[in-house]
Amino acid sequence: MHLEESDSVFSAFSAHPASLNQPEANSWEDETPRVVSPTASSTGSDDSLLDAYSRAVTGAVGRVSPSVVNIEVHQSAGRTRSGEPRERRGGGSGFVFTPDGLILTNSHVVHDARRIEVTLSDGRRMPATAIGDDPASDLAVVRVDEPGLTAAALGDSQRLRVGQLVVAIGNPYGFQSTVTAGVVSALGRSLRSYSGRLIDDVIQTDAALNPGNSGGPLVDSAGRVVGVNTATILPAQGICFAIGINTAKFVASRLLRDGRIRRSYIGVSAQTVPVHRRVVRFYDLPKETGVVVLSVEQKSPARLAGVREGDVIIALEGHPVAGVDDLHRVLTDVRVGVSCSLTVLRHTEKLEMKIVPEETSNS
How far apart are CA 212 and CA 229, in angstroms? Predict the structure, then answer.
């Protein structure tokens, strides 16, 4: 029986006081506590669940928010009619990941910045320098000359589970954090960076990203950073993405070591095409698509290896290549200057070539 029904019973008793003198009234009065108590018990249970959820979110925010910073960027925007340089302002969020002032953020937040200023969670404002940025993964590292900062604890994005509680934190205005909570909607997504390369193992979440939250941390209920907030799909509601912290750890270590990410290239313009089914069956190929070479750069590794226009690349160093993105994945920095086996289809003939990828001039 619902509470509304119980109210109607009590209302009926009030409207007809004489009915309280009837023998049946005692039985109704005896049953009344059994009607109300389940509702009260359910309400108490709901309150305890809400408190547990709230405690998880507030606890995570309390542990990480001191590490979240606002990043203001000044970029060149050409010149005025009088010839004076003109600046364009932008910015986003980031978070301190070492006590000596190293900050992780998005590449698109600080790329081509002439001047960077960081505002800490306590309101202190100071200049920052870019250590390096990687447009292909949309990650960057900047540094402030301020020791003894509170560093965020880094988690393990490989241990995330779909449905797990996550909290997105940003510092878009420099004085207080903005917080949204949600769950991990999907794992292993791929997202196209603004450089054109594909970012793998991206986390999809419904924790909304407010304006200026790019570069802020995505944390689990224990307050460990599991991702770097990077993008949202504007036409869709509640679809946001974060780069896994494991990817961010690798990129940050390379940026600290080299200032950039070394990636290799072979010097072809290509696109993904289907491979004829007869050819797939004849050679027992693992994939039914490959990468057709549209053009080959002069003096490039591909030209030196004998690759021709119209060849279909199906494997590199034994790794199947089903599309351009697969080729990008295999062409990592470990391939720079190392002789690799390139497998192509030329008409219906399967050929093996030796190719030595070179380091790309722009990451």
Answer: 10
Domain extent, residue 156, equals 62-78+85-261
**pLDDT of 351 over the 90 cut:** yes
CA 359 – CA 344 distance, rounded (Å)? 22
Separation between Cα atoms, residue 55 and residue 139, nearest integer Å: 31
Task: Count how many domains the chain has.
Answer: 3
Nearest-10 Cα torsion for 156, 161, 166, 169: 40
CA–CA separation, 235 and 89 (whole Å): 25
Q: What is the pLDDT, as a whole number, of residue 238?
A: 65
Residues 69, 13, single domain; the answer is no
Q: Looking at the structure, do residues 182 and 126 belong to the same domain, yes or no?
A: yes
Instruction: In the chain, count H helices and then E strands.
Output: 7, 20
- 105-129 tens-digit pLDDT: 999 999 888 899 999 988 899 999 9
Structure tokens at 156: 């393990």
Same structural domain, 193 and 57: no
Residue 224 CB neighbours (<10 A): 19
* Vertex 86 angle, CA 84 and 92, to 5°: 160
pLDDT-derived band at 46, boundaries 50, 70, 90: low
Residues 108 and 54 in one domain: no
270: domain CATH number is: 2.30.42.10
Task: Please tell me whether residues 340 and 275 are part of one structural domain.
Answer: yes
**Active site residue ranges:** 108, 138, 214
Q: What is the model's pTM?
A: 0.72
